[in-house]
Specification:
Helix content: 55-70%
Order of helices and strands: EHEEHEHHHHHH
Number of domains: 2
Distance between the termini: 29 Å
Radius of gyration: 20 Å
Shape: elongated
Strand content: 5-15%
Largest sheet: 4 strands, antiparallel
Length: 265
């Protein structure tokens, strides 16, 4: 058994970890992938001494991958995913999808594009968690198919929402219901804080758990942004703060959808 360590300077997002994982899973002989998002390093455990194929695939992603070291490895890491971690991931997936339904419904009813945009961000996270929970032994083609479908759906909804934001900017419509914005965003904030605490309690250093923590932390920031926008809607009696925060979140969702679509290539 051999282990090669790569530096990947542009691996600064959990979605990019997913891109790399799906890219390398099709290579025969790879036994284990150990990601470090903080140091932007990847350790690959492989059965054959030739690491050139792995490096070529990493270089094709355009993330600046370079080989740090390679050599024999006698220590084989545990490849089993802890059942407790899987339970937590299932729980945060369910919470994210539930709040996607709640936020998109209340967002449309109240006229808040901030809530609608945040709901799509929740849906995007649910897609990523679903990909993380797929069985390790599942065929790569199935994972790529799921990534393609989820990415296209997310991109379609985000562009649809962004076009609605532009329409409202041009027509200068009345302000949305700020009370609904505050209440739903506050509930979503509580849900994301609970998810964050559950994920942190696992004390896992595994890449998929660290990625989930980062996604949920980003959600907390977005929730605070929507709450701030609601307060500004009330203070200025204007729809502009809601449209601005909605635009920002929609752009984040579109960026995430494009990255998810890279998984299907």
């Amino acid at each position: 058994m051999y282990q090669s360590t790569f530096s990947i300077p542009k691996m600064d997002c959990p979605t990019e970890e997913r891109i790399i994982r799906l890219k390398l899973e099709g290579i025969m002989g790879i036994r284990h992938l150990d990601f470090s998002l903080e140091s932007r390093h990847l350790k690959v455990l492989h059965a054959y001494p030739n690491h050139d194929v792995i490096l070529q695939d990493l270089e094709s992603l355009g993330m600046g991958a370079t080989l740090i070291e390679t050599g024999p490895c006698n220590t084989i890491p545990s490849l089993q995913t802890e059942s407790s971690e899987r339970k937590v991931l299932w729980l945060v997936l369910i919470i994210n999808f539930a709040f996607f339904l709640i936020e998109i419904t209340t967002g449309l009813v109240s006229g808040s594009m901030g809530l609608v945009a945040d709901s799509l961000d929740m849906l995007a996270d649910a897609f990523v968690y679903a990909l993380a929970l797929m069985a390790v032994g599942a065929a790569v083609i199935i994972k790529k198919r799921v990534a393609r479908i989820s990415g296209i759906l997310q991109l379609f909804l985000a562009f649809l929402g962004f076009s609605e934001v532009i329409r409202r900017f041009l027509n200068l419509e009345t302000a949305p219901n700020f009370q609904t914005m505050i209440i739903i965003s506050f509930l979503a904030l509580i849900a994301n804080v609970i998810c964050l605490l559950l994920l942190q309690r696992t004390k896992s250093s595994e890449a998929h758990m660290q990625a989930s923590i980062i996604f949920t932390s980003n959600d907390v920031v977005i929730n605070l942004g929507v709450i701030t926008a609601a307060v500004l809607v009330w203070y200025f009696n204007s729809a502009l703060p809601d449209l601005i925060i909605g635009s920002i979140v929609f752009l984040i969702v579109i960026r995430g959808a494009i990255r998810i679509l890279k998984l299907s290539k």
